[in-house]
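User: Okay, second chain of the day. Same drill as before: sequence in, C-alpha cells out.
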Amino acid sequence: MTMSVFLRFLLCTSVFLALTVPAAAEEAAVEPKVEPLWELALAGYGLYGPAYPGSAENQGNFLPLPIPIYRGKFLRLGEDSDKPIRGRLFRSDRVRLDLDMDLNFGSKSDEIDARVGMPDLDPLIELGPELELKFTNQPSRHGNLFFALQMRGAVSLDGFSPDWRGFTFSPELRYVKHLEKDGSRLKLRITPAFASSDYMEYFYQVDPAFADPQRPAYQASSGYLGTTLGLSVQQPVTDAFEVRAGIRIGMLQGARNEASPLFTDDTTQSVYVAFLYKFWASKRTTTAEDSF
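Assistant: Same drill. C-alpha cells below.
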C-alpha cells in the first residue's frame, strides 16, 4: 500500500470511528428480534456497476430466483445481499469465525472497449473464512462496531469447468445498526483488499497474443487491489415483502496494477437493489443476529 493510499484509508477509518465509537460505548441494550428459522422467498437482484475492479465501463445484471432463507446455528442462507451464504465455524459473544461464499457476475469482453478481442471474464465464486470481532458485548440501540479479517479463494466458472484464480485478503471495519423494531437495518463498511498474482492476472494481465498498439502487453502482479466503501439498507415493507439496497464506492488510487491498460478508472461506483417476497415461514423461530 502506498503512502497516499494509506493516508486515505486512515482518514476514512478516523471518520468512521468518530461516528461510531460513541455508539460502541453505549451500553443500553435492545431486545433482539425473533425471526423464523426457515423462510422461502421469491427474489430479484439487480446490480449496476463496473465490469470489473478498475473498469471505467459499467454494466447491469439482473438475477431473478427463488431462494431459501435459513438462520441456523451453523449455516446462514439469504440473510445478507453482500454475503448470501455463510457457514458458522465458531461463535462466542464477541468472536465469530464464518465460512463465506460470494458470486461475482462475469463480463463479455467485446462489450468493454479496453478488452475487445480478449477472453470473456467468467463469473467468479469466492469462498473462504472470515474472523469477526465485535467491540460491544450486547446489542445496542445505537448500533454495533465490528472488525473482520477475510480471506477468500476464487474460481472462475466456464460452464462446468472451474479454473483457479487466486485469493484475496481483506481487513474490514463494519458498523451495523438496527433502525426500527420492524427489522430494518443499516450497514456501513470500509474494506481495503489485497490479492495474489493469479487474481490480479485475471483482471489486469495482457498476454502478448492480445497486445496491440493501444493495449501493450502487461504482466500483472500481487499487492493492493483497492478499498471499498459500502453502505447498505435492509427495509421490510410488510411482513412478507422486503427491499434491500446498497451503494459501493471503489477507491483504487495507488493500486498495484494501476499501470495496466485494462485499469481504466481509479474511482468506481456501483448500486444494487434486491426484492424479496417471502411466501412461507416455519413456525420454529430463532434470534436475529447483530451482524448481517
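The CA atoms of residues 234 and 244 lie 4 Å apart.

User: Thanks, on to the next one.
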